[in-house]
Amino acid sequence: MLESLITSKTRLRLLVKFFVNSQNQSHLRGLAEEFGESTNAIRKELNNLTQAGILVKHSDKNKIEYQANTNHPFFTNIRDIIRKYLGLDMLLEQILERMGEVEQVVLTGDIARGSDTGTIDVVITGENLNDEYINHLTKRIEQLIDRKVIFTLSSGRISSGGLLLFDRQAGI
Hints:
Layout: H1 2-5, H2 9-19, E1 25-27, H3 28-35, H4 39-51, E2 55-60, E3 63-68, H5 75-86, H6 88-98, E4 101-108, E5 119-127, H7 131-145, E6 148-154, E7 163-167
Parallel strand pairs: 5-6
Antiparallel strand pairs: 1-3, 2-3, 4-5, 4-7
Helix pairs in contact: 3-4, 6-7
């Protein structure tokens, strides 16, 4: 659906890269390699997004790094749209609905790094999690968001690594 609003596939991939996790940053050649596209196509979209203030750039040694502009008035809106596009809102809603005493929901793998490979790795932490529901949930979520989902259940909290979607203690 978002493809009909944002007709440039390169622009959409850049928005996913930088807005699924605002900590993601990259440079021109790295993006061209990751996306398998020419540096000219990437440069054009980076320039457009930077001029609009959606991305910010800063020098890191001899490279220019790009990152989402968290101070942009539409940052939260764009982030939410990208997360909806990826189905992360539905994923979180379904997990919290009947999984039990969920403490954290953390995205790991490619999607946390802003690469939409079609697979979403999710770690769910908590006590007394509903193991039976996870099998049903996996199939249901995959149909809803049209992506493969891999769930990992854990009883211990995760302190680093990945993108935190929900944390009961932090109120996120």
